[in-house]
Amino acid sequence: MWWGSQFYYALLGLVAAAALQLDSAHASGAADVPVHGNETFAFRELVVQSQSPPKITLAPRDKKVLEEGTVSFFCRASGNPAPSFHWERLGKRVNARRNRFEVIEAPHISVLRIKPVKANKDNSTFTCVANNGLGEARADAQLKVIRKVDGRDGEFFVV
C-alpha cells in the first residue's frame, strides 16, 4: 500500500500549495523520507517568502540642536524586498552629495546626518521615505535650530 501513502503526501503538498498565494518561493535540499517498509518518498523543502510594502518601524524623532552643531535622524522600515530610502526637506529630496548632508544606509535602516547645522536653512521638517516597489512609507521629524548670535561679550544662543 505504499502507493497510497505516497499519493496521500503528494496530494497533501498540492493542496497546501494551492491554498497559498505565493509571492516568491524556491525549493531546497531534496531528501528521501521513509513512508512504508522499504519504500521512500522524495521530499523537497519549500521556502516561502511573502512580499510586503514598507512600514516605518522606527520613525525619526524631532530634534533641537545648536547652530553649527551636528544632528542625526534615524529611520528603520520593514518590507520585503528590503526598502530603499531617501530623505526630503520641505517636500524636496535632500541631496546627499552636498558637503553638509550625509546619508548612511544599511538593510532596512537609513541615517541622515547634517553637519554643520544652519539656522537659516535647516529649521524645517525632514521626511524619511522608504520604498520597495510595492509601496511607500513616510515619517516626519521637525528640526529646531537654536541660533547663534555674536554679541559684544562673545557668542550666545537665542532660543
UniProtKB/TrEMBL annotation:
PROSITE patterns in UniProt: IG_LIKE
Domain Ig-like: 54-144
Matching InterPro entries: Ig-like_dom, Ig-like_dom_sf, Ig-like_fold, Ig_I-set, Ig_sub, Ig_sub2
Keyword list, A-Z: Disulfide bond, Repeat, Signal
Signal peptide residues on this chain, from the entry's feature table: 1-27
UniProt xrefs under Pfam families: I-set
Protein name as annotated: Tyrosine-protein phosphatase Lar
Organism: Aplysia californica
Gene giving rise to this polypeptide: LOC101849468
